[in-house]
Structures are given as C-alpha cells and as structure tokens.
Amino acid sequence: MNEKWNLNDPYLYEALNGLLNQSIAVQTPRGSVRGMLRKVMPDHIVVRMGGAPFYIRMSQIIWVKPEAVRITSELEER
Fold it and tell me: Name one Pfam family in it (predicted).
C-alpha cells in the first residue's frame, strides 16, 4: 500500500513538530486543551492531559501556544 499524505497546513505541522514532548495549549472550536504534545501526524495531534490522550484534528486547531514551565528556586517556595 502506497499512501501519500496531503498536508493542508505544512507550516502548522512543522511548528507542532518543534513543540513535541512539550507542554502546550491548543484552542479548538469546542474549547481548549492543555497538556503534553505527544504525537504530530499530518491530520491530527495527540495531547496528553490528565493521563488521557486527546486526539485533535489539524483542521480543528485555531491556535497553539507553548506553555511556560515555571522554574522556582528553593527560596521562592518558602
């Protein structure tokens, strides 16, 4: 079987590949999903949120934002 993927938005696909295994926020028409980006495919992404995978179609993505990871020192925690 010889399948050829057609990328509707190659720029989004490449940008998401650069965020693989990072914490992100994704806005869809049904709301936002925040979690770890685990997989990027030509037609969908997989975001792990609260231990569950969320499969989001590329065509449903409105925007994507990398989530800042806050690094605190021991002094700030006290």
Answer: DUF2642
